[in-house]
């Protein structure tokens, strides 16, 4: 039997594909500029985080604890936000460091902190049993 998590993940992927199809079919916006980037973030946001966000807002943990879902959504938000900043302003500099370099450091630190937070949470949950 298919779990509720799987059903919601499938629905999120289908919504992402529908959104991508509608953007491509109706050529919403110009080919250049912000429209392709917004479409990219919409598609991957729905596919990677849509089900987690839906289940976290509803308070349903299923196979994954709600706190872990919120941590994942926070990580995706930082990664997408930093990716947008790198895309639009990566060639600019702050003092002598390019914004792209700063963004890559933020991405690396975000992933490391996320992995550590999930590892610590998993360890703590295993110790309480």
Q: How does this model look, in words?
A:
With about 130 residues, the chain is mainly α. The chain folds into two domains: about 1-65; about 65-129. The protein has helices spanning about 5-25, 35-60, 65-90, 100-125, and strands spanning about 95, 95-100. The longest helix has 29 residues, at about 100-125. The chain is flat, with a radius of gyration of 18 Å. The mean pLDDT is about 80. Keywords: Membrane, Plasmid, Transmembrane, Transmembrane helix.
Record the strand order, biggest sheet: 1-2
Helix content range: over 70%
Q: Which stretches of 5+ consecutive residues score pLDDT under 50?
A: none
The assigned structural class equals mainly alpha
Average predicted confidence as pLDDT = 82
Total domain units: 2
Query: Could you give a short account of the major beta sheet?
Result: 2 strands, antiparallel
Terminal CA distance: 28 Å
Q: Which value, in Å, is the CA radius of gyration? A: 18 Å
Q: Give the topology string: H per helix, E per strand.
A: HHHEEH
Keywords: Membrane, Plasmid, Transmembrane, Transmembrane helix
Layout of helices and strands:
Elements lengths: L3 H22 L8 H25 L7 H24 L3 E2 L2 E2 H29 L2
Antiparallel strand pairs: 1-2
């Amino acid at each position: 039997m298919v779990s509720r998590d799987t059903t919601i993940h499938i629905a999120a992927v289908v919504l992402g594909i529908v959104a991508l199809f509608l953007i491509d079919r109706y050529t919403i916006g110009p080919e250049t500029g912000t429209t392709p980037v917004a479409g990219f973030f919409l598609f991957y946001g729905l596919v990677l985080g849509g089900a987690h966000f839906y289940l976290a807002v509803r308070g349903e943990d299923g196979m994954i604890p709600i706190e872990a879902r919120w941590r994942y959504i926070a990580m995706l938000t930082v990664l997408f936000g930093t990716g947008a900043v790198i895309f639009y302003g990566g060639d600019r500099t702050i003092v002598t460091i390019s914004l792209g370099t700063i963004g890559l450091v933020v991405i690396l630190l975000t992933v490391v902190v996320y992995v550590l937070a999930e590892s610590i949470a998993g360890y703590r949950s295993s110790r309480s049993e």
